[in-house]
Amino acid sequence: MNQNDPGQPADTPEQGAGLAEPGGGPAHEANPLAEALAAAEKERDALKDAVLRALAETDNVRKRANRQIEDARLYAVEKFARDLLNVSDNLTRAVDSVPEHSRGLMTEAVRTALEGVELTQKELVGVLARHGVTAIDAAPGSAFDPALHQAVTQIPSPHPSGSVAQLFQSGWRIGERTLRAAMVAVSAGPGGLQ
Predict the structure, then answer these.
(1) Is the residue at 121 inside a domain?
(2) pLDDT digits (tens, 9 = 90+) for 43-92
(3) Is the domain of 140 the same as that of 152?
(4) Cys-Cys with 172: which of 73, 128, 150, 179 at CB 3.0–4.6 Å?
(5) pTM
């Protein structure tokens, strides 16, 4: 429009308001800024979420690594400890093979040798315990646990049915793992006893 042309009406404020609509007036200039702000906030929120996820994942990796280090430390002696269990069993058998009533009849040298074997067996059990290897409770009358005990037979006994009646070979665990299950006889109850 030519403002100098007398045949044309001058722009009125209402017509000027029409120019501020989409297509290029002052109201349209605020929209790009609002859109840019919204996009920046959206990007900020996405980055914040990504950082939080990365921190959580880092924390999970750290916890997992610490758990693996602890397991490696605890279970590193597993094979060695399993090999030593036979030594402990043999020492226990040697001590148990001497009847209690014959101990008073022994010479001083034999009694000293027997005490040495007993002390060696106790020391071995203590060393194993310091490294997380502990004996499994398999005392007669204790509850039978298939994760810890291996049932060899079932016999009548004064103990409740389903409990441990007799221990044949001691069981051991390392940490929460069963290193060797205890070999036991399971009680059938007092039914067959006279």
Answers:
(1) yes
(2) 999 999 999 999 999 999 999 999 888 888 878 888 899 899 999 999 99
(3) yes
(4) 179
(5) 0.60
